[in-house]
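Worked Example 4.2. Consider the chain below.
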Amino acid sequence: MMTRLSLLSLTLFLSACGGVDLRFDTPPTAVGGGSALPEERVSVRYARIEVATVTLPTYAQDEEIVLRDDSGAIAPSGGLWADEPGRAVTLQLARDLDAITGRLVAPEPWPFRDLPDVKVDVRIEDFFATSGGTFRLSGQMFVAPEDYGTDRARRFEIEVPVTGEMTPGAIAAARARAVSDLAAFVARKGLR
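Applying the procedure from the previous section yields the following structure tokens:
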């Protein structure tokens, strides 16, 4: 069986030899053909929800998928994200919030004629795979209603396991699950 390090080395070798940048997207469907959309449903008070562009730390704004080792060093893992990470997380967060709440949800800029009832702003501090075999997402979310309701600010710390070997594809799948967990957190703690 191939170790995580040897698999990572093989990925780096193949990408260097072939001159091809390997890009990894979050999977549109779960392994086995099931939907990757969250199954949780949360009733919320707002009908129209705008998601501000998610902000990421400097190291996570690049297209490289990163891994944090036990010493705390954050370095490229050998793969590239298929899309700009802030944009991809924003789009998934909006899509997952739509599925969880059953409400009209869109990323900024708001594309509809009627204004949104509330704006969700997520600022991420940790956005990396760990040498312990997880993907970590932490930061703070802010919810600002337009006319009614209370402003809210909540910290979050989400860590999901990377399934199987620590490959860029497995890291991308773990990132997708972490963002889905974040959407459920936002719905439960910010939009009720």
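The first strand starts at residue 23 and ends at 24. Confidence is low (pLDDT under 50) at residues 29-35. Compare this with Example 4.1 before moving on.
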